[in-house]
Amino acid sequence: MKRGIWTFLFIAAMATLLSACGGGGGGGTSTSVPVTPVTPTSTTISGVAAAGAPIIGNAYLKDSQNNQLGPVTIAADGSFSFDLTKLPSGSTGPYYLQAEGAAGGQTFLLHSVTATAGTANINPLTNLVTAQAAGQDLGDLTASTTNTSKITTVTQASITAAITAMQKTLAPLLQAADTTGALTTVNPITVAYVADPTKNKLDALFDAVSINVATASGASTVTVTDKSNNPVIPQTTVGTTPSSSSTTTITQTVTDAQGITTFLSNFATTVNAKGASLAPADIDQYYYGSDSTFGYDNGLTRTQTIQGLVTSLTGKEMLQIHGQVTKVANFAIVLDVTPNYTGFTKVYRIRADFYFQDGSFGSPRNMTVAQATTGGPWQFIGNGSKLDAEISVYANQGAQANNTTTYRTGLYLYFEDVGNLGINSASLEGPGLPSGGITFSKQSTNNSNNTRLALDSTFQGQQLYDSWGQYEMADSQIGQMVTGIAGYKQYVLKFYSGATAPSDRTTGLIQTRYPIIAAKPVTNTVLASSSAAAWFPTGTLTSMTMTHSMTSFASMMMNTTSAPFSYTFPTAYTTAMLSADVNLWDQNSNNQYTGMQLAQNKTSGTMTIVKPSFTPTAGWLTVEARDPARRYFRSVWVLQ
After folding, report:
1. Any alpha helices (H) in 444-500, and if so which ranges?
2. Prediction pTM value
3. What residues make up the domain containing 302?
4. Burial 569-585 (b: 16+ CB within 10 A, else e)
């Protein structure tokens, strides 16, 4: 598989992001600016769905009779609205809401509740309040056959009591997030809310912590951890005062979120002012130190990182298809990695989505920012990895030459020693993986530079697309996975100098990393169902009859320089990015790759054909979509 698309997106987006990523900074104020585009009326329920960043996904509503509205698409700012007149006559509250999607690189399923029409946000605090008021975990509200009994009678009095109970238990946390005390009396359901840490300290709080709720026998407990998975408030029954709390870092993290947003804005202003004439010297100030102090960023030095950004900025590929970046949004602090660095006051791993003119968007991998001295400037610093390591989730739908369709799902792993730092093997261990983990090693056929590490043959399975990097998983394995921040340090990635990963996982150890997997793969059960088509894009070369014949396909490739291409989008999620490629090969290790980006605001394009210099014997045409949690969904048309 070629990875240029998302590597390029990282560089181009960082280089062309607009100053719309925010401003302000400093301590800020807890006053929120409402963004809901529909003014709530006696017949609507509107709000903002967010968890430190707007939730990119869908919202649902159910009344007390289990009637459902939705899904409705959550807007880019997190806003949504339901028209209650679309419910059956006689429908009554309470109304239960659900937001399902991705924010800050991980997936969420959050609830809210309201007794009447009006404003009803959905966020981690409303999720806690709903569980407390209902006396149970509502689960997935869209599974109506299993959740009818969970639609309980909740009153405004019980909602108010649940909010008071939440405020009492989380008082240390709310005070730490806003030292003026304004948040200690917050009603998370009805508060005017904007998903921007520079304008809303409640949103900044969600950047700083993870709030986990469990309900059993009518009683809810809550546990709060910071983004390094360290306890802030230990497990406490909602409505009681916690036995202890450790909130010292929360106030600082809230302030840091605002400062980092301002830093991104200043960086964008400089880059946009230079445009096509941008030179490494123009952005040097935004990168910390020198090659010796910056550290490695996915195996690249400071000089290589800056030069790569400038080189990509002057290229036209991304702008021709997607246009300029229209905004940078959904800022989120993913992890405080300060303990992994010395000589810095603060170091954070962060995420921010970059939106292009055609509607495509994406989050750069592994952005890391640092503050060398207290109150000093924020700067980019290397993420520390000596290996270019990408761990994502994939699903393939393969149209085979025998007219059957097969599905594969699991982890996609791309490891490359781009800096030639002597990394020759690797291992990955963690929940859902076999005992002892999975291993990788270099092979002379991986790429022309022999820098890529491939899955060892034991773990390659029956893959449709890229057996070197796709680890196929069974549903039982997927069920064991731990994703999002909760998975930090659950997965252990090690790099070695030896040709194979050592059995002791120590000999020749070069580096240890702790990757976070944002979301679980879609299960094989789902992909095997009749709804599988909703997850995959489709594509057709309109200049030829689509057959699996390699001979006819190769003939087309040899007799034209361009081919019209039409495509459709998946419906199970909001598509973040779309691309297509043709890959051909023969029995002598010759390979020819042709790829193209696909615009989100179109359904067709033209693929520029690269004629192979050999006679291909096999290949495929693929159309690939990415969802907001960085999962790949590929339709593969096999050629033989």
Report:
1. 475-480
2. 0.85
3. 4-23+253-380
4. bbebbbbbbbbbbbbbb
